Amino acid sequence: MREIKDDIRNKNGLTEKEFLKQYNSNKYEKPSVSVDTLIFTVDEKTTNNYRKLPEKELKILMIKRGDHPYMGKWAIPGGFVRINENLEQAANRELYEETGVDNVYLEQLYTWGDVDRDPRMRVISTSYMALVDKKSLKIKAGDDAEDAKWFSVEAKILSEEKKNCENGYFYTKHIQLILRYEDITLKAEIIETKKYKNKKSEVNYEIISSNDIAFDHAKIIVFALTRLKNKVEYTDIAFNLMPEVFTLTELQKVYSMLLGKELLAAQFRRKINHMVIETEESTKGGGQRPAKLFTFNPYWNE
Amino acid sequence: MREIKDDIRNKNGLTEKEFLKQYNSNKYEKPSVSVDTLIFTVDEKTTNNYRKLPEKELKILMIKRGDHPYMGKWAIPGGFVRINENLEQAANRELYEETGVDNVYLEQLYTWGDVDRDPRMRVISTSYMALVDKKSLKIKAGDDAEDAKWFSVEAKILSEEKKNCENGYFYTKHIQLILRYEDITLKAEIIETKKYKNKKSEVNYEIISSNDIAFDHAKIIVFALTRLKNKVEYTDIAFNLMPEVFTLTELQKVYSMLLGKELLAAQFRRKINHMVIETEESTKGGGQRPAKLFTFNPYWNE
DNA sequence: ATAATAGTGTCTTTCAGACAGTATAGT
DNA sequence: ACTATACTGTCTGAAAGACACTATTAT
């Protein structure tokens, strides 16, 4: 930290020391600041055919709110930032309290600052995205907080539309977000508007309906899914969702699920070949040819 | 906005209406929230040879602080978020007050939440990056606020180092940031550490010295430069720095400057060909062959 | 004529996409 | 033998990189 000097005087004749002593930080009304941590993992759908490999499924941890506002609705885990912890610490704390995991991938996503986000007061919220692999969670089965559940996540594009205007156009996507946990289904509809006008581009999310998802969390989830999908294409971020060892087909299924499209095995393998290391181990008992197990190669991008 | 219901009661027997009435948002100490707007533009270095085309130069608007803390040092324009404006509005307001321009490219960058960023109190700051073209600024010459100046920006990598550790490595860059306006030179040194360990990757910026740049703004500038450089490669963001019409060589010089490397004309032209529209106009009086003028094609990515 | 920029043609290499074809467990 | 997955070889075409070559102005 920089030391406080006592030599320069401001227009009121105060040195910095004197200035700080008389400074009243409560002159203006302050917003509250919270941190929300979107915790994603990948799970497997159960399969009936002993030969079929299970499908991969993206899951997000949601918390059922026990008090007003949005009581009984589901929300992304989060809380207010304590005055003596920084934002990453707050996000990590939230993550640890809910999952018992530590030292996992955590990335700041966006800060949401609309005036009416919370009926209690002005709340500015910084959202973080955490990626954890399901296996590291097995110990703490997630049932200690009885109202924290892993919901499967799906964002369907219901319609897309392009409208021209002078010097540009609007690109509108009608997105349906569906979260499922056992017999609970949470649905929300969001309109994503990309505006291109005079070189300037702007993305905006508007919640049309959000029946059982609290606050503006539906659009935060959609935002996170978009970011995740984009980053999967040009970074190694997806490996954070994988267990220590995995087969290339499992990896491919995760990529394919996140990107929302089928991938051809040959070119997928070529593409991620330098990001993985082959181990001596193989799968067995799968009802078909065993597959080599691989680990992530942390030195791939050199 | 969602209506406040009056049917569900929480564990204290309160409906939402009653709950909100008795809710005290000042139970916990709140941080202050500010917005900093990094305003970049591209300018031309003066050239002595009438034939040589001027070199392009990235500039950032900095404000000389008139009061404690960091009085007399230079800072990114910014201010506290008003309780009734959202973050984008605050960033746009700052931008307009300093440059008189409106409706330009503005992107949220990152939210800085370290506990000791400001000696007055806990301040959480969301930084935005604005890109404007120099010509739109010509009217308001930037001299109305006598202590707002356009500094040229340069980030030099002094050294790079890789250290291995168990299950990963550290990648350290020693970066020197140099801002210049006439005879004023602001220097700062920042260490960027990328940590790769057990799949988890983490980037951290530490300010080693920052003589005349206020607060942690030196690392915010370095962060913005990195983001800008990355986005230039895979988006059309650079066009926000261009005037209405431009030659392809001018565009190439801007790309080349932002990316920090030479580009070959033939492949550059092929690459950006679909992003521009040829006009009927040409340059003249340049001391050499005239060049066609182009405009941005907002429909290129379809 | 010359300096400096403007702009094009084409060869090579690299890589994504497509798809056929071979391999191998478990039942 | 059959099923479903595991894994490889190779053709094609598009795009990136390199570089030589032509064109055009003000002085």
Textual characterization of the structure:
In chain A, strand 7 (148-165) and strand 8 (168-181) form a beta hairpin. The first copy, chain A, has helices at residues 16-22, 87-99, 134-137, 217-234, 248-259, 265-272; strands at 32-44, 56-64, 74-75, 78-80, 105-112, 123-131, 148-165, 168-181, 184-197, 200-210, 276-282, 292-296. The longest helix of chain A has 18 residues, at 217-234. The model of chain A has no long low-confidence stretch (mean pLDDT 92). In chain A, the strands form two sheets. In chain A, strands 1, 2, 3, 4, 5, 6, 7, 8, 9 and 10 form a ten-stranded mixed beta sheet that branches. Chain A is α+β, with helices and mostly antiparallel strands. Chain A has six helices and twelve strands. The two termini of chain A are 35 Å apart. Chains A and B meet through helix 1, helix 2 and strand 5 of A and helix 1, helix 2 and strand 5 of B. Chain A binds a DNA duplex (27 and 27 nucleotides) through residues 49-53, 247-249, 264-267, 269-271, 284-292.
Structure keywords:
alpha+beta; DNA-binding; two-stranded antiparallel sheet; 302 residues; 6 helices; homodimer
Multimeric organization: homodimer
Structural class of chain A: alpha+beta
- Would you report the number of β strands of chain A? 12
Biggest sheet of chain A: strands, sense, closure? Answer: 10 strands, mixed
User: Which spans of chain A have pLDDT < 50 for at least 5 consecutive residues?
Assistant: none
Interface with most residues: A-B, 68 and 67 residues
Q: How many helical stretches of chain A? A: 6
Order of helices and strands of chain A: HEEEEHEEHEEEEHHHEE
- What Rg of chain A, in angstroms, do the CA atoms define? 23 Å
Gross morphology of chain A is globular
C-alpha end-to-end distance of chain A: 35 Å
Strand content of chain A: 35-45%
Helix content of chain A: 10-25%
